[in-house]
Automatic annotation (TrEMBL):
It comes from the Bacteria. It comes from Ureibacillus massiliensis 4400831 = CIP 108448 = CCUG 49529. Residues 182-213 are annotated as: Disordered. Residues 182-208 have a biased composition (Basic and acidic residues). This is Transposase. Residues 140-341 form the Transposase IS4-like domain. The lineage of its organism: Bacteria, Bacillati, Bacillota, Bacilli, Bacillales. One of its GO terms (biological process) is DNA transposition. InterPro entries: IS1182_transpos, Transposase_11, Transposase_InsH_N. Pfam families: DDE_Tnp_1, DUF772.
Length: 400
C-alpha cells in the first residue's frame, strides 16, 4: 500500500547539538582525532600583526582548505556554500548552527596577503607527515616517482608568443664543469661560460588567461595549457613530496629536486623507482653517486628497422672509441655542450663496407654515435635492472 506523508515536520523544534548530528564514523571525526591543528598557530604567528582588528582564526582557514581537497570540492566558493549547510563540516571547524561562515573573498584575501609565496602549506604538510612517520606508518626506503598533467582553465587558442630564458636544470652546473674536464682530457678547449649562456633563450606560448601554466603537446590531438604534478610516494601510497610546474617542463628535470626535498624532510631512500621518462644519464648519475639504487624499466631501442642497434657497436674505454660490427673504429671527435661525446667512422673505409646499408644512410658514408659523459651510470642502471631485488621493487610501482 502506498503511503503519503501528510505530516510536515520542517518547523518542529528539537533540543540537540551539532555533536549529535555528526555520525561517529564520519571522516571529519577521524581527521580531528588524528591531527591536533594547534601546531599551525606558531607557524603563522609572524604573518599576523600584533595590533588591529581580530583576524579569522588561521586554523579555520586551513581547515577549510582541508575540507575542499579531502572531499573533492571544486573551488573555495563552493566549499563555503557546502559548509553553510553541512553539519559535519561545521563541526570540524568548531562552528555552531548559527556561526557566520567567512566569505570566500575573505579566504582569498588572507591567502594573497599572508600565505602566497610562503612555504606555510609545505610546512604543514611535512609536520603532518612527521606524525605519520612517528607512528611507524611510513616506509621511506623505497620511493616511487611519477607525474601527471592537470589541464589548466585556459583556452589553448588564447596565447602570446614570448622569448624566455630556459629553465635551469638542477644538474646544469655540474654537467658544464664535467664536460669541460672531458674536453680537456681529450685535447679539446673547454667551452667559455658565454657558450652556455648564448643558447639559453626559447620561444614559448604563454596563456593570456593563466600565464603560469605551460603549453603541453602530447600528440596531434592533445594540445593544451596544463600543469605537471610531480609526486613521490612510499610503497604504502603516502605522498612524501610534490612539486608543481608548468606543463611543458619535462618530467626528468624534476626528479633530482624532488628527491633532494625528500632527503631533507623525510630521509634518504635506498631505492628510487620511476618510469621510462626518467631513464636519463643525468638521473642515473645523480642516484648512483648519492648511493641510491635506480629502479628503471626496460626501454626499446629507437633504431630504425633494419639497422644495427647501438649495443652492437662495442665501446672500448681504453681506446675511447667504438668498434663497429665490421671491426672498424669510430674515433672520438668532440664533446658537445649538452655533454655528448661524438664518435665518427672513417668514410674511406665505410664506403666499401658490406654492412654500410645496415649502418648508416649518411651520404658521406660517416657513421656517428653519441655517448653521454654519464653514459656509464646509465649502463650500470640497466645492468641493475636484471637483479631480482630491482624487479621486485619495480613491480610495486603500479600499486602506489
Amino acid at each position: 500500500m502506498m503511503t503519503k506523508n501528510q505530516i510536515n515536520e520542517r518547523e518542529q523544534f528539537e533540543m540537540l547539538t551539532i555533536e549529535q548530528l555528526v555520525p561517529q564514523d564520519h571522516l571529519v571525526r577521524k581527521l580531528d582525532a588524528a591531527i591536533d591543528f594547534k601546531f599551525i598557530y606558531p607557524l603563522v604567528e609572524h604573518l599576523y600583526s600584533a595590533v588591529g582588528r581580530p583576524s579569522i582564526d588561521p586554523v579555520v582557514l586551513f581547515k577549510m582548505t582541508f575540507i575542499q581537497y579531502t572531499f573533492g570540492i571544486r573551488s573555495m566558493r563552493q566549499t563555503i556554500k557546502e559548509i553553510e549547510t553541512n553539519m559535519a563540516y561545521r563541526w570540524f571547524l568548531g562552528f555552531g548552527f548559527h556561526t557566520e561562515i567567512p566569505h570566500f573573498s575573505t579566504f582569498g584575501k588572507n591567502y594573497e596577503r599572508r600565505f602566497q609565496d610562503t612555504d606555510i602549506f609545505e610546512q604543514i604538510f611535512y609536520r603532518i607527515l612527521k606524525e605519520i612517520m612517528d607512528c611507524g606508518l611510513l616506509s621511506e626506503d623505497h620511493i616511487f616517482i611519477d607525474s601527471t598533467h592537470v589541464k589548466a582553465s585556459a583556452n589553448k587558442r588564447k596565447y602570446d608568443k614570448k622569448l624566455v630564458r630556459k629553465e635551469t636544470r638542477a644538474y646544469e652546473a655540474k654537467l658544464q664543469e664535467e664536460l669541460n674536464i672531458d674536453r680537456e682530457e681529450n685535447g679539446k678547449k673547454p667551452f667559455p661560460p658565454e657558450k652556455f649562456e648564448n643558447d639559453e633563450m626559447k620561444e614559448i606560448k604563454e596563456s593570456t588567461t593563466d600565464p603560469e601554466s605551460g603549453y603541453y603537446v602530447k600528440d596531434e590531438r592533445t594540445k593544451q595549457f596544463a600543469y605537471s604534478f610531480h609526486a613521490a610516494t612510499d610503497e604504502r601510497g603516502f605522498v612524501l613530496g610534490a612539486i608543481v610546474t608548468p606543463g611543458n617542463v619535462h618530467d626528468s628535470h624534476m626528479l633530482q629536486p624532488l628527491v633532494e626535498k625528500i632527503i631533507e624532510h623525510v630521509g634518504k631512500p635506498v631505492a628510487v623507482a620511476a618510469d621510462a621518462a626518467y631513464k636519463t644519464p643525468a638521473i642515473a648519475n645523480f642516484l648512483l653517486e648519492n648511493q641510491m639504487l635506480p629502479v628503471l624499466p626496460y626501454t626499446r631501442p629507437k633504431t630504425k628497422e633494419g639497422f644495427f642497434r647501438k649495443h652492437e657497436y662495442v665501446y672500448d674505454e681504453y681506446l675511447n672509441a667504438y668498434i663497429c660490427p665490421n671491426n672498424q673504429l669510430l674515433k672520438y671527435t668532440t664533446t658537445t655542450k649538452e655533454g655528448y661525446r661524438q664518435y665518427k667512422s672513417n668514410p674511406t673505409v665505410c664506403k666499401n663496407c658490406p654492412f654500410l646499408s645496415q649502418c648508416t644512410e649518411n651520404k658521406n658514408h660517416i657513421k656517428l654515435i653519441q655517448r653521454h659523459i654519464w653514459e656509464g651510470y646509465l649502463e650500470e642502471a640497466e645492468h641493475l635492472r636484471h637483479h631480482f631485488e630491482v624487479k621486485e621493487i619495480y613491480a610495486k610501482r603500479k600499486e602506489t
